[in-house]
Amino acid sequence: RRAARAAWDARLTVAANDARWVEGSLVPDVLRAGTAAEASAVWTAGRPRVLGIDAELYDLASTAPDEERAAYAALIQERLRALSSAVDVDASSGADTDVERLRAARGAIDQARADLRAALDSPVQPGPVT
Hints:
By secondary structure, the protein is mainly alpha-helical. It is built from four helices and no strands. 82% of the residues lie in helices and 0% in strands.
């Protein structure tokens, strides 16, 4: 049982690190793109990995060895999905998008990034294997 929990925790660590990559690397790359087309291309290229992380978090939440771990995996998944949705809106913006819509989309991304970071840094993270 201890080995199974340790293996689950190791998978969660990888998924959490991957979610950190989305928040700290992929999304900033999308936001730094020079044009809407470039932003869309960067996001489209990274989207399969984001979907894979989402699927892994779903599986982790479904197979967690206890409720605390299930809740933590589900929280990260929820926050990753919110960030993904916010970037989807921004990346689908065309060159004719008005400034207010762009500001709103970027504000939603900033909030979703902060929410994901908070979840990843949450003190509710599963403790050591006992």
